[in-house]
Design brief:
By secondary structure, this protein is α/β, with parallel strands linked by helices. It has helices at about 5-10, 30-40, 60-75, 90-100, 120-130, 150-160, 170-180, 200-205, 220-230, 235-255, 260-270, 285-295, and strands spanning about 15, 45, 80-85, 105-110, 135-140, 165, 190, 210. Helix 2 (about 30-40) packs across helix 3, helix 6 (about 150-160) runs parallel beside helix 7 (about 170-180) and helix 11 crosses helix 12 (about 285-295).
Length: about 300
């Protein structure tokens, strides 16, 4: 199969939509569709429902399927849909097959949460999922610094539909080595730590980056992408400086408020409720005021 259109979609801003809730705590379908339309109208070409910014681990099976279906319907060919799947291998396979039946283009395989991860077992886990949906692109979400480039290369050799890697280890030097050991051109390398890490990862081989901030200000994320593509690192760093405090708030205490800050910003803009599910927690009033002040000057 020709996976080149999927590779192109990954070499871009890969948006991770939030999952808004209504007053009763259920997924707010209308708000979710509106947020997706805002991303699409803003120029986003790839969206990942059921990502971590979408509170993947706080959603039920039925809710994850609902979010997948809503995303495919709303995207309607305007953007590639990369559905987050995970948990045990059987559950991930079922989710991948559902994504395929719903009309998605790719699946992103969340980092296995099992406390004991062997390198060969990591390969087997992803191979099981990739072989279950050979028509779909597959993108491992790699947060484990112990997974070597050689393991990724072996996975790619057996599974041609593994088209990219979302790399989210806080070490650009490690990323540079892993990408080259795995195959810099074999996979699309997506900087999985969003905008603050995008310039350093781009310099050593990434050609796309994920974003939760894009929910709030699509133009800001796309401005960084444009600067990086043009090799304009001073321009990219201007964006970096603009968003630094916002992203630092998300990253505090091992990213405890990763989703909370994004939803707070959207709430300040009147786009959805601020509600998050445990183990996340809404911001206190002081934090809400700071987030509102940060995003006040950001245009849609």
């Amino acid at each position: 199969m020709d996976f080149s259109p999927l590779r192109t979609a990954l070499a871009d801003v890969v948006a991770i939509p939030v999952t808004p809730y209504d007053a009763e705590g259920a997924v707010d379908r209308a708000a979710y569709r509106a947020l997706l339309r805002r991303l699409l109208d803003g120029g986003v070409k790839a969206v990942t429902p059921n990502g971590n910014t979408g509170e993947f681990y706080a959603l039920t099976l039925e809710e994850r399927r609902l979010v997948t279906e809503l995303t495919v319907e709303e995207a309607a060919g305007r953007a590639a849909v990369l559905v987050g799947v995970g948990h045990d291998a059987a559950t991930a396979v079922q989710a991948a097959r559902h994504a395929r039946s719903a009309g998605a283009d790719m699946v992103m395989v969340h980092q296995p949460v099992h406390p004991y991860v062997a390198q060969d077992g990591w390969i087997d886990y992803h191979r099981t999922i990739a072989e279950s949906v050979p028509e779909l692109g597959v993108v491992p979400y790699l947060r484990n610094p112990l997974i070597e480039g050689a393991a990724i290369a072996r996975l790619g050799e057996g599974c041609p539909n593994v088209v990219g890697v979302k790399y989210a280890v806080h070490d650009a030097t490690r990323f540079a080595a892993v990408a080259r050991d795995a195959g810099l051109d074999r996979f699309v390398w997506v900087a999985g730590l969003a905008e603050l890490y995008a310039p350093s990862y781009w310099a050593v081989g990434a050609t796309g980056f994920t974003s939760g901030l894009v929910n709030v200000a699509p133009n800001v994320s796309l401005n960084m992408l444009g600067a990086l593509r043009a090799g304009d690192y001073p321009g990219a760093m201007k964006v970096w400086e603009q968003i630094r405090r916002f992203e630092d708030l998300r990253a505090e205490r091992q990213s405890a408020n990763n989703v909370t800050v994004v939803k707070e910003a959207l709430a300040a803009m009147g786009l959805c409720r601020r509600d998050v599910r445990p183990p996340s927690k809404p911001l206190p009033e002081t934090g809400r005021a700071e987030v509102a002040a940060i995003v006040e000057g950001w245009s849609a």
